[in-house]
């Protein structure tokens, strides 16, 4: 026996000794067993691997505080935003701190005229989109149209001060507006009590801002990650379809229409009185819808003509307003926007319902719609940040969006977000910084101060058509097909959300989207994957035998890989699953008269951590297997598993010689022993399992 | 170049060709590059490993239905309870089905006299414990004491019919009783409205049974796994302390006492009027408490004297009743139980609040207390099943417990569970089947029919003392110390629950226990572990460099292992983390003037699955790294990852030559290329990344 090998087993014995589970009389017998084992192992040419047994080193324990700080840091500050503060002078740290709080102080000083040129063009482009969309989306939310213009003025200004994204265009969103309308309608009827409706909308926006900022301040913004992308795609597609169906009211010129957005109610209202459809509005709608869709398609194919799709809505508004004005169509049952008050945002802070029954309702609405707005803005912001290769601090961005909504709710604005379509236009128009938002806000301001009378004769049908054109672009059939192709479970989630919105209601579809997402997380958490491994012939690679047909099991050995950390939410399942694998294997061996099972090796490579419940169940497995005369071996345990086993004094329970650094090693040693001696001979020194202190 | 190697690269090219990313003119150049690469690789003696490149086989796709059925089966029937039905005749299947629904039909026919002897002894033993405890725990729940006896009669009988555990002893529990009392008190005052209080208790029990059975029927019983063992230990310890403090009322003989169970209120009530303490009750209490604790200790040390601790409470009741009767102590301000009605359980089905305001309250109380009762019974049942090496179907057991509570609530019983102390006595007394429950129920029946007058003079103080002795045994300081030693995070959870109960209230402590458990799950789910790997010198083992000091990184290569499946709840974090590792590494290289970074290899061994969001973020990483002239390689991708990459047509995006079967291989090939040629030369044939269809 080589010196190294002797040394290795001596180390193991030393540990064994120190735990008082060793007696003098067994020494000679053990030495003989060791020698035979080493000889056997060498016969397989793995002597050099045995040296790596002492790779299974007990890790140096981290202090509790250190461990706790590490976890908190990773949890709350995953992007390490204060990295830049390292090794800086005090003055610089102050400056960095202020720049962190107000990003405009960071990019402001570096601003130059080239940037301004780009931002001016993009600002004008998105303003031409924002004005008609603002009016239209406010109507979608059942709010006075002027509020849509207010919400395209102040929020972008606030965002430019506090926001981190260079591309996000802030303003009302289509899906968000209909969600707000649906939620508000549950509590206040906008026809009988319009003033309370508007006040509730402002209050909900206020609370939405509070929730958004809180998520960011307490750095728990990661909860927006808990909704699966597939469910979001399904929800948005369904909501877009719902919004489109609702626009049939304006397009067909129907006066009495359902408030609900589900397809059955809408279809019923549409086909109830076909004779009441107004051919005028249908005509206007078809013409301009074609115009809008065509310009959109041209802009998509020739990206240098991006401005075409952007000004198309404004042009449509202008033309249709002119048409109505000249033909006096408003006297022929074509409903119009009506007069829009001139002037900037009036103060609304005194109108907020900060106490009383409406306050609770507003909080609920604010929470739901605020989370949706946040998820959309963060997702859009990240998408474009990736395209331009810069990072966004999610939590900081949430604080910014919270401040935007909080502040603007006190100035007659309702809930705004970073809408994907407007941001895409901003991006393609070549924006460089958030100054494009400032330019847009300035143009909206000019409109508010001087140009609002121009919209007096704007027909509602054109607003409906603009909304229709906008949301049809949100229906992402290509994305849904991609999901179907790649991941059927994800597709189920997607369809569940989509159909929930279309057939029941928008909030219900949202609930399904969130529920399915959480269900997926639970599934992953509570039913981790396990696999029986076999060796790929001619190599030392072990793979799942279910998927690799050239992987074959080793006789007498059952090799199970556990593909997850082991903790309370899955440890009982894992215990039962392992024992079931063993039962099935023994039954199968019996049926085919194979080599009797002697070893169960657990490949713990993916087991990144284990807690006290997991430890307890693992030792249960050991106990049960021992009763059945099977030997359990642990292969490739991670640092946390070794650490916990050590602290719990469970190493002697398993036996240090049955803990291996690699699967390869474990299989080779077990095979060697199986061939040379019986398990009983090898374990002659084992003492009875100490009582588990947890029972 | 060997035939095998040529064949391997030809395969790769074929795939490349088929994706139309290949042109004729590049052929000769590519062949030359390949030759150089193979030569370089051979120089490192890894030619044989290259053969295993074709281990990275595209898996055979499973049909969607098959995949869905697999997942459902694992989720809902993890223990495969219908295994035994395989290959059986139809008649046998019928029989097996009936035995599954009524386990008594399974073990009944195999019953023999030996079993009966053991069950008789254990039944008598637990009956002697059940009678005093039943009376005492009902008082703990502020219910008439006779209800405690009713609840020790019918529920065990029902359980013997439907239950699967051979050891579980059913009856009222101490922690459960005080939880029920706390919850009921929030809605009904038992002093002013005792009848409504009792009816609400029955109704809550009814709904608890409904919830418990539903969990089992819909096979979502795994949600009881979502509470961490450490939090449970903390909660039970805290509740035991709270119950002990409450017993000071009976021990000190104080009449006016607080209803709250938190330590501050109790201490205040105790020390408010020390002069009102009754020396008589204190004396009785101390004497019998000593007696009970001593007998308990003796039974623990000498397991053949188990019956001593079991009959001690009954003996105490007998002696103290005799003492009060003889000394007429009830005339000296010693409160007594009073008269207990003779006769069996009256029907109470007509008293249930199945509609009206109380129904909702009862549902809430039933849900909370039902879940606690279930968790305790399942945990206790599993513990003893493990000791005796048999399995329990968790879901089936839940249906049984649900039926027990549902049925017994209609017969004047309140919420019962499988209490750990009584079950332990049952186990040590040598029970063989649930017949011990039948024996216990029979003895309680005899008591109800004939012996209730005996308890007329039983002093309340002895009941308080019995409760005190029972719950002191639940305070698991050894278990808490073990948790402290092994896992500090678990210890925080434990202490949080314990202190929440002691200082605020029992329901609040329960909330903390559940909240911390869910928080731990979220932590695991949203912040998965990643590690930088280095090679352990002299071996081909790669380990985390943070924990293995003899692991050193390979120059020019950053090797990151991702220790979790990649899906929507963690993919954004993983993306940002990987990019941050890259940033830190490049900065560190710059500071020490090291070999410039060229390759980023992701070890995907633990990545058991990936979803569409994960795929999207992975390709984002690829995009960003490409911009920085870094090459991304994927090592050891699991079957699901390969499958999804293939379905999404992302393989050409990464380049099949950059997907390796093992980390070892990936490192060796990348090192070889780094030494022989620059990355640009190697990638000359790469086309621009196709547009990600998800944007």
Oligomer: homodimer
What percentage of residues of chain A falls in helices of 4 or more residues? 55-70%
Flag low-confidence runs of chain A: 1-34, 36-55, 685-695
**Beta-strand level of the residues of chain A, as a percent range?**
under 5%
Structural class of chain A: mainly alpha
Rg estimate of chain A, integer Å: 34 Å
Largest interface: A-B, 92 and 90 residues
Major β-sheet annotation of chain A = 7 strands, mixed
Summary of the model, kept short:
Two copies of one chain form a homodimer. With about 700 residues, the first copy, chain A, is mainly alpha-helical. The first copy, chain A, has helices spanning about 5-20, 25-45, 45-50, 65-75, 90-100, 105, 115-140, 145-150, 155-160, 175-185, 195-215, 230-250, 265-270, 280-300, 305-325, 355-385, 395-410, 420-430, 435-450, 460-470, 475-485, 490-505, 505-525, 570-590, 610-625, 640-645, 650-655, 665-675, 680; strands at about 170, 415-420, 530-535, 540-545, 550, 555-560, 600-605, 630-635, 660.
Keywords:
disordered N terminus; disordered C terminus; 695 residues; 29 helices; 7-stranded mixed β-sheet; homodimer; two-stranded antiparallel ribbon; mainly alpha
Describe this structure in words.
2 copies of one chain form a homodimer. Chain A is mainly α. In chain A, 62% of the residues lie in helices and 5% in strands. The first copy, chain A, is built from 29 helices and 9 strands. In chain A, strands 3, 4, 5, 6, 7, 8 and 9 form a 7-stranded mixed β-sheet that branches. Chain A has a two-stranded antiparallel ribbon with strand order 1-2. In chain A, a hairpin with a 5-residue loop joins strand 3 (530-536) and strand 4. In chain A, helix 14 (279-301) runs antiparallel to helix 15. The longest helix of chain A has 31 residues, at 357-387. Chain A is elongated, with a radius of gyration of 34 Å. The interface between A and B is large, with 92 and 90 residues.
């Amino acid at each position: 026996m080589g010196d190294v090998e002797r040394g290795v087993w001596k180390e193991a014995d030393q540990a064994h000794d120190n735990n008082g589970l060793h007696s003098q009389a067994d020494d000679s017998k053990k030495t003989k067993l060791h020698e035979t084992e080493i000889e056997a192992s060498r016969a397989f040419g793995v002597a050099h691997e045995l040296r790596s047994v002492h790779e299974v080193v007990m890790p140096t324990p981290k202090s509790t505080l250190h461990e706790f700080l590490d976890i908190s840091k990773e949890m709350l500050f995953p992007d390490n935003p204060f990295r830049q503060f390292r090794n800086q002078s005090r003055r610089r740290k102050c400056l960095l701190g202020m720049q962190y709080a107000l990003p405009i102080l960071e990019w402001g000083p570096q601003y130059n005229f080239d940037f301004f040129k780009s931002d001016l063009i993009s600002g004008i482009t998105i303003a031409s989109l924002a004005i008609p969309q603002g009016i239209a989306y406010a109507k979608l939310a059942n709010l006075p149209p002027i509020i849509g213009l207010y919400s395209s003025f102040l929020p972008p200004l606030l965002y430019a001060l506090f926001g981190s994204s260079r591309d996000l265009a802030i303003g009302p969103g289509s899906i968000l507006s209909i969600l707000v309308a649906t939620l508000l309608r549950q509590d206040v009827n906008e026809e009988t009590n319009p003033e309370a409706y508007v006040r509730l909308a402002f209050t909900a926006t206020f609370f939405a801002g509070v929730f958004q900022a809180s998520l960011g301040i307490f750095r728990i913004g990661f909860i927006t990650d808990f909704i699966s992308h597939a469910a979001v795609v399904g929800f948005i597609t369904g909501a877009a379809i719902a919004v489109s169906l609702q626009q049939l009211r304006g397009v067909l010129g129907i006066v009495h229409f359902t408030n609900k957005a589900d397809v059955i109610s809408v279809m019923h209202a549409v086909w109830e009185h076909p004779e009441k459809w107004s051919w005028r509005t249908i005509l206007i709608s078809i013409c301009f819808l074609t115009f809008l869709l065509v310009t959109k398609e041209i802009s998509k194919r020739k990206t240098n003509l991006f401005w075409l799709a952007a000004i198309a809505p404004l042009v449509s508004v202008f033309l249709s307003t002119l048409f109505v004005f000249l033909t006096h169509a408003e006297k022929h049952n074509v409903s119009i926007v009506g007069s829009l008050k001139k002037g900037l945002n009036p103060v609304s802070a005194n109108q907020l319902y900060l106490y009383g029954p409406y306050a609770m309702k507003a909080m609920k609405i604010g929470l739901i719609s605020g989370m949706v707005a946040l998820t959309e803005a963060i997702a859009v912001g990240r998408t474009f940040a990736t395209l331009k290769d810069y990072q966004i601090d999610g939590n900081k961005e949430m604080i910014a969006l919270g401040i935007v909504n909080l502040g603007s709710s006190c100035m007659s604005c309702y809930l705004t977000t970073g809408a994907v379509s407007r941001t895409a236009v901003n991006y393609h128009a070549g924006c460089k910084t958030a100054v494009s938002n400032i330019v847009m806000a300035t143009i909206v301001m000019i409109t508010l101060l001087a140009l609002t009378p121009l919209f007096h004769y704007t027909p509602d049908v054109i607003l409906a058509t603009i909304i229709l054109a906008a949301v049809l672009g949100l229906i992402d059939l290509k994305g849904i097909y991609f999901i179907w192709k790649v991941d059927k479970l994800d597709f189920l989630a997607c369809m569940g959300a989509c159909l929930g919105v279309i057939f029941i209601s928008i909030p219900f579809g949202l609930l399904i989207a969130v529920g399915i997402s959480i269900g997926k997380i639970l599934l992953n958490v509570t039913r981790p994957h396990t696999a029986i491994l076999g060796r790929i012939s001619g190599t030392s690679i072990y793979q799942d035998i279910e998927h690799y047909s050239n992987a074959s099991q080793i006789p007498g050995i059952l090799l199970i890989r556990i593909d997850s950390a082991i903790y309370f939410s899955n440890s009982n399942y894992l215990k039962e699953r392992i024992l079931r694998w063993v039962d099935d294997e023994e039954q199968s061996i019996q049926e085919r008269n194979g080599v009797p099972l002697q070893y169960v090796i657990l490949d713990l490579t993916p087991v990144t951590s284990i807690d006290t419940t997991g430890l307890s169940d693992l030792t249960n497995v050991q106990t049960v297997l021992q009763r059945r005369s099977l030997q359990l071996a642990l292969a490739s345990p991670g640092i946390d598993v070794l650490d916990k086993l050590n602290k719990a004094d469970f190493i002697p329970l398993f036996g240090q010689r049955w803990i291996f650094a690699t699967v390869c090693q474990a299989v080779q040693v077990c095979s060697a022993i199986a061939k040379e001696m019986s398990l009983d001979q090898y374990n002659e020194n084992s003492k009875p399992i100490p009582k588990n202190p947890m029972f």
